[in-house]
Task: structure prediction
Amino acid sequence: MKDKIFLLGFMGSGKSTLGKKLAIKLNVNFLDLDQFIEEQQEQTIQEIFKTKGEDFFREIERDCLKQVIALPDNFIIALGGGTPCFYDNMELINKSGVSIYIKYNKGILAHRLMHSKKNRPLINNKNQEGLLEFIETTLLKREVFYDKSSIILEKNNLKPEDIIDSL
Ligand code: S3P
Result:
């Protein structure tokens, strides 16, 4: 593997799950940016949002992205849903490796997120209607960044093999 591989996409698109499996198949390490942030800050993402706010989180996220990029090894990195959409992060990502957008439509995302919103501060207090509305408006803004990915994969039940085939 020649480059770092960045998996990106909206919350609930399965970046971490897929990234772990892909790393096993390619025999490289896996790194989850949210987890990297939590370890460095000694706080959960939820706590960071609550005590320090989103702007602070985005600064830390940017700083951690730079640190991860500076690591000498090549590995699979699962980004947070918002990572590519702040500062010039997406340019930085594309300069540093292969970016893969795992794309799902808003209906599928809403369905997946309804059951896993507890630890996600941007959506954890939303009902079904509020969640769908949030996905609709946020996805529209974020896809401008996501669409700059080197590879875009849109498929239900995406498997690591599909990613490998696309490389
Ligand atoms: C966020 C997504 C989360 C996490 C934070 C903010 C976002 O990561 O970084 O809660 O802005 O979409 P996941 O995409 O892994 O849930």
Strands lie at 4-8, 29-32, 75-78, 97-102, 151-153. Residues 11, 34, 45, 80-82, 120-122 surround shikimate-3-phosphate (CB under 6 Å).
